[in-house]
Specification:
This protein is α/β, with parallel strands linked by helices and 179 residues long. Helix content is 36%, strand content 26%. A seven-stranded mixed sheet has the order 2-3-4-1-5-6-7, with helices on both faces. Strand 6, helix 4 and strand 7 form a beta-alpha-beta unit. Bound molecules: guanosine-5'-diphosphate. The site of guanosine-5'-diphosphate has 15 residues, from helix 1.
Length: 179
């Protein structure tokens, strides 16, 4: 059915330290204010904001709950199941985090095989030019291979953060209209 969803869940994935919380904070436009805690048992933290994109409003609930070191596989499965869209983050200063991003893309694909969910690959910390370990070309090629969108951001400088989440909204709408 052409079910219209007023709100979309966007899950942030990626290695610890790549900047997921910083991106979520930059998205929410807050520095230190306490985010909405949705579910105590999952320690799930979500940031809600309504964006006006191309003259239409859409509410995103950005979920920052990914803890790769957690043993309980149900937690990982939960994160991989609940998203309407995924933002897979790596740091351009950490090649290991870039490799993890590919693994996450593969996990996501195997868990959500039948669905065409938007996935955006994000190279964060683009301000740290002298510590760069992953080139823009490498990032773009990886995104192309894994059939997802790509953007480099700096949560620290708030560079491309708005563009990232506007891109998520556009990807979600494209799929909604395709249904
Ligand atoms: P998370 O573990 O993925 O949620 O990462 P955090 O958001 O906690 O960030 C880890 C560290 O990287 C913190 O010290 C942040 O201040 C720093 N950081 C995050 N994003 C950026 C960025 O775009 N540029 C720079 N220079 N530092 C960043």
């Amino acid at each position: 059915s052409g079910c219209w969803e007023p709100q979309y869940r966007v899950v942030l994935l990626g290695d610890p330290g790549v900047g997921k919380t910083s991106l979520a904070n930059a998205f929410a436009g807050v520095q230190d204010s306490a985010p909405t805690r949705l579910s105590r048992c999952l320690a799930e933290v979500a940031y809600e904001r309504t964006l006006s994109v191309d003259g239409e409003e859409t509410t995103l609930l950005v979920i920052d709950a990914w803890e790769p070191e957690r043993r309980e596989s149900w937690h990982r499965s939960h994160c991989l199941q609940v998203g309407n869209a995924y933002v897979i983050v790596y740091s351009i200063t950490d090649h290991g985090s870039f490799e993890s991003a590919s693994e996450l893309r593969i996990q996501l694909r195997s868990m959500r095989q039948a669905e065409d969910i938007p996935i955006i690959l994000v190279g964060n910390k683009s301000d740290l030019v002298r510590c760069r370990e992953v080139s823009v070309e490498e990032g773009r090629a990886c995104a192309m291979m894994f059939d997802c969108k790509f953007i480099e951001t700096s949560a620290a400088l708030q560079h491309n953060v708005a563009e990232l989440f506007e891109g998520v909204v556009r990807q979600l709408r494209l799929r909604r209209e395709g249904k």
